[in-house]
Amino acid sequence: MHARWPAGSAAARCCRAARRAPLAAAAVILIAGCGSAPRTTAGSQPAGGGQSSASVTRCGTTRTAANVPVDVEVERGQVSCTRAMTVERGYAKAILDGRAPGNGGGGPVTVLGWKCQGFPTPEVLRTGQASKCVSGSTEILAILPAPA
């Protein structure tokens, strides 16, 4: 069974591009995530920007190496939203620059001292989580927005 998205949605465009792209490019697109599961975190505005619930801070939106929009969240630990966004943008740039090992950039890459790695496609489709970056016990997630 195939997921259905509105014809003009980012997820639909991403998956159409993945079907037309060469294998290596498709791997990057799929790692970046085609599809998502809804993810909600309610919260108020903490000092320093972003939205927060008990342990999750939503920092904003950026784009993956495949130009797919993702929401950046600090899932565990504490790091400024400015730093979290810089790390996620650096991860996308590392993939575009070919610095991530593995076919299509699936292997881990270090960005500004953070270990970043994309999730396998089945996990991206199930959870909506495209990638994570970890430093010590602090974890930043790039999450696909729910289809509109």
Considering the chains and any ligands shown, give keywords for the structure.
148 residues; alpha+beta; 7-stranded antiparallel beta sheet; 4 helices; 30% helix; disordered N terminus
Q: What is the number of independent domains?
A: 1
Instruction: Output the strand order for the largest sheet.
Output: 1-2-3-7-6-5-4
What is the residue-averaged pLDDT?
Answer: 73
Which bin fits the share of residues in helices? 25-40%
- Strand-residue fraction? 25-35%
**Low-confidence segments:** 1-53
**Strand segment tally:** 7
Total of helices: 4
Sheet having the most strands:
7 strands, antiparallel
**What is the element string, with H for helices and E for strands?**
HHEEEHEEHEE
Q: What structural class do helix, strand and pairing data support? A: alpha+beta
Radius of gyration: 15 Å
Distance between the termini: 20 Å
Choose one word for the global shape.
globular
Short summary of the structure?
The protein has 148 residues and is of the alpha+beta class.
List the helices and strands and how they pair.
Layout: H1 10-20, H2 23-32, E1 51-52, E2 57-63, E3 69-76, H3 81-96, E4 109-111, E5 114-118, H4 121-127, E6 129-135, E7 138-143
Antiparallel strand pairs: 1-2, 2-3, 3-7, 4-5, 5-6, 6-7
Helix pairs in contact: 1-2
